[in-house]
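Exercise 7b. Backbone tokens:
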């Protein structure tokens, strides 16, 4: 089975293997930005702030 890995991928894999604390920091930072749970009140606020879509996006107003 042929599994090509670019030089960049090999470097990153080796770097993360040699520096496991970086992998932990990546997970912590991901939790800050992406793994956020919104309360029902926040979700309703976002839904209320959404603008209606135009039927054709490229039509000038």
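Sequence design result:
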């Amino acid at each position: 089975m042929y599994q090509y890995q670019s030089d960049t991928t090999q470097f990153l894999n080796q770097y993360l293997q040699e520096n496991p604390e970086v992998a932990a920091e990546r997970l912590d930072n991901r939790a800050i930005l992406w793994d956020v749970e919104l309360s029902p009140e926040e979700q309703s606020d976002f839904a209320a702030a959404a603008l209606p879509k135009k039927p054709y996006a490229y039509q000038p107003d």
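Instructor comment: Helices lie at 7-18, 20-33, 40-49. DSSP finds three helices and no strands in the chain.
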